[in-house]
Design a protein that fits this description.
81% of the residues lie in helices and 0% in strands. The protein contains four helices and no strands. It has helices at residues 2-10, 13-39, 43-62, 66-84. Helix 3 runs antiparallel to helix 4. 0% of the residues are buried.
Length: 93
């Protein structure tokens, strides 16, 4: 509390208000720029990123064995068909 009392004595109300507004504006610009960058990603870039993540996931899981690999492939297939609205019945081998 002593630090805040020091700020009140050292800086005027107007200065504290300006610092608050400047800080708020900087945070708003930062968040806004992150949102704009996310929205600027094209569908092909999103699909490429998702495909790369799936490949990395499968390569890591498939090192654990065939059963784990098959389960991961089925999980990815189910996720894709749920997102696209297709039939999600399991493929029987």
């Amino acid at each position: 509390m002593d630090q805040y009392a020091y700020l009140i004595q050292r800086y005027s109300k107007k200065t504290r208000y300006q610092v608050f507004l400047l800080t708020s504006a900087m945070i708003a610009v930062l968040v806004g720029s992150i949102v704009v960058l996310q929205m600027s990603e094209t569908d092909s870039e999103k699909e490429a990123r998702a495909r790369k993540q799936e490949e990395d996931f499968l390569s890591a899981v498939c090192k654990q064995g065939k059963k784990a690999c098959d389960e991961a492939e089925e999980m990815i297939r189910r996720r894709k068909c749920e997102l696209s609205g297709e039939d999600c019945t399991p493929i029987k081998k």
